[in-house]
Design a protein that fits this description.
Layout: H1 3-18, H2 32-50, H3 52-62, H4 66-75, H5 81-103
Helix pairs in contact: 1-2, 1-5, 2-3, 2-5
Length: 105
């Protein structure tokens, strides 16, 4: 599976898991995962500031382990919490896409 397809499918899972209506365009020649991580960091940062319950519920649905969530929330530097959570979310969503592709009939 190519990187663009993997990024787009990961993005769709993130949108579904967070219940987001916001749309992101994937443009030729850019690193899609970097753009996706930046976009997701903004979403996570907003939820950290305005709706922590929604964020925690999304992390549960995405299947980020509770221990990992606690570690990221407590062990990250103040300005890095949203970015570190976004990275963990992206890694988990990429794993899901790859697994689904592998076992697709």
């Amino acid at each position: 599976m190519d990187e663009v397809t993997l990024a787009k499918q990961s993005y769709q899972l993130v949108r579904k898991d967070f219940g987001l209506e916001v749309d992101m365009e994937f443009e030729e020649g850019e690193n899609d995962f970097d753009r996706l991580e930046d976009w997701l960091t903004k979403q996570v940062n907003y939820l950290l500031d305005h709706d922590l319950n929604r964020l925690l519920n999304a992390l549960y649905r995405i299947d980020i382990a509770e221990e990992q969530t606690k570690e990221l929330l407590q062990g990250s530097k103040q300005g890095q919490i949203a970015r570190n959570l976004a990275r963990a979310i992206m890694e988990r969503e990429k794993q899901k896409v790859i697994t689904r592709q592998k076992y697709q009939l």
